[in-house]
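### Sample
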Amino acid sequence: MSNPMALQGIKVLDLSRVLAGPWSTQILADLGADVVKVENAAGDDTRIWGPPFLTDGDGQKTDAAYFACTNRNKRSIVLDFTTPEGVETVKALARKADILVENFKAGGLKKYGLDYASLSAENPGLIYCSITGFGQDGPYAHRPGYDFLIQGMGGLMSITGQPDGAPGAEPMKVGVAVADLFTGMYATTAILAALNHRNTTGEGQQIDVSLLDTQIAMLANQASNWLNGQIVPQRMGNNHPNVIPYRVYPVSDGFLIIACGNSSQFARLVAALGAPEMAEDPRFATNEARADNRDAVDGAITDLIADKTRDDVITILEKANVPCGPINTIPDVFADPHVQHRQAEVAMTRTDGAQILATAYPPKLSKTPASYRIAPPVLGGDQQDVLADWLD
């Protein structure tokens, strides 16, 4: 008999849409929670965020691939919050829920009686997670928040992109919605912390998660460089502000990454490339010295590998145990034998016949691994089953 899943028996009412909230609830779902996604008649915005689109068993276009990336293991029902019947059904579901996740604007659900104060009065153990752009209070609380805006306002774009004076220099967003995704993960860890607290005390609580707070936290060492050293981080292209050499280098057939995190790795790097004396040079002997002489380090390494192919350099450096690697396209990633061994790709079939490929839940739990039970749902496709399961 297989072990129960980590969150088996936990009921999650998902009133969120787009990415941050659905990313959180998909994690909970992957770990075994029963997640019910409540949508309006038009469905989650991302159902139409294509191309590309899924096709059903008859070859007809259905939901956007974007929707599929963050809504597996959920069941979908359609309810209209603007009607008394819809509101009452949500309230009834909330009375049965362990967790509720929503990403309406701050205070947006209060007029329906679906705010934390109203719902917790009838379900004191409810864990109510509110995800917004700017939080439940403060001067910006009323503003809508999208990932792109938050990457700009939260400082990320000021340190991403080519430096001033270089070709193509301008503030640059990251190529995936990292503020949304990190917010979803922070929301999930907070939910699990609240769940443990409830298991101890019986008390639920409200969780206030904002994209801006999350993005600021994710500045990590860059924030610390400013807060503790009054160093204003700048756009540095592919250079690292603190570690050298740690960047993209050109080779005869393209580019590769070399990432030395300490001086012993640097010594192995230059020895493998035929210049062991560089490790003894006072300009390069420590990371601080290399930071002071960044251009000289990078120039020397570039000269040493310029006539070599990417794969030749990787082979040389891997033998010397120096961190390095290629810059893969997305197809390259999923063709990589190690990625395939780690089973990073998951195949699912939806009730309408749509064949869906997705990325797997990354952590490998030895006793309660994630599972992939339900393909991203058809809009409203689970209405009767959910009402029967949750509300008898």
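The two ends are 28 Å apart (CA to CA). This sample (Crotonobetainyl-CoA:carnitine CoA-transferase CaiB) is used throughout the tutorial notebook.
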